[in-house]
Amino acid sequence: MTDTLLVARHGPRLDLTINRPGRRNALGLGEWRRLGDAMEEAAADATLRAVVVTGAGEAFAAGGDIEEFRRVRRTPDEARAYDEVVARATRAIEDCPHPVVAAINGACVGGGLQIAAACDLRIAAASARFGIPVARLAMAAPPAEVPALVDLVGVDVALSILLEARLCDAAEALARGLVTRVVPDDALAAEVAATVERIAAGGPLAARAHKRLVREWSRRRAIGAEAEAQAYACIASEDFREGVDAFLAKRKPGFNGR
Q1: In CATH, what is the architecture of 5-199?
Q2: What is the CA radius of gyration of the chain?
Q3: What is the reported pLDDT for 2?
Q4: Phi then psi for 51, rounded to 5 degrees?
Q5: Which of 78, 203, 208, 232 is the most exposed place for a label (fewest CB within 10 A)?
Q6: Residues in contact with 243: Cβ distance below 8 Å, sequence separation at least 6, in sequence order
Q7: What percent of the chain stands above pLDDT 90?
Q8: Could you tell me which of 70, 71, 81, 89 has the C-alpha nearest to residue 5?
Q9: Residue 29: which of 77, 79, 64, 1 has the closest Cα?
């Protein structure tokens, strides 16, 4: 049986690849559960600097597996249970202490856009397409997933995405704030690698503190005492001393996450 979520470690980088190219990487419940598991495992690995989420073949992810809906999403109660599995996966992306980068190729639709919206950075190939066309199925988007979309693009754009149920190209997605940047299709892998390299060049404790500070502010419009303490704890770290010493000596720092 083919593994529908590929997990590959490359030094300080972890790649998670949705691997159902024959179905444009549509996710069934099994894939949603595996994605949540993999992200929780990544969160526990202090040696990581970044996680990259992408799709195999010619799509990032074309949403949920609609054929499966007839078996697992037939009633409001089943839909709630299904969406809890989805929400666990997207929360695991948001809550992962390491920066998470979406490498978006091709269709990034429905649940695929929910995954991308949960990531910290979204780098898109020029041929990518975006949307949440669930209104065409006469269903509403999972309520737990709407706040992340609104936080990302604002009320007006979120309503346009959900009400019009149309797909937009990468240039429009960039203008709307859906993605961080757009690159030519053949430059996507190189740009993602360069992005991870830039992240890894900084102190990992600082990266984790920055992610937590931004996420807390986005969710609560306040910074909690624990997040504040985590940020200031960077000053007591070996990495801070190494960073200052390296800067003054005009050499590349060697951070160890301590």
Answers
A1: Alpha-Beta Complex (3.90)
A2: 19
A3: 64
A4: -120, 135
A5: 232
A6: 203, 253, 255
A7: 93
A8: 89
A9: 64
Q: Write out the H or E segment, with its range, that includes residue 51.
A: strand 50-55
Integer Cα distance of 238 and 23 in angstroms: 47
pLDDT cut 70: percent of the chain above it: 99
CA 148 to chain centre: 11
Q: Which of 117, 99, 109 is nearest to 65 (CA)?
A: 109
Question: Which residues are 242's β-sheet partners?
Answer: none
d(CA 140, CA 29): 18
In angstroms, the CA 183 to CA 166 distance is: 22
Half-sphere exposure of 30 (CA within 13 A, CB side): 8
Rounded to two decimals, what is the model's pTM?
0.94
Question: What pLDDT score was predicted for residue 99?
Answer: 98
**Identity (one letter) of the amino acid at 44?**
A
Q: How many residues does the chain have?
A: 258
Residue ranges covered by each domain of the chain:
5-199, 202-249
Sign of CA dihedral 87, 90, 92, 96: negative
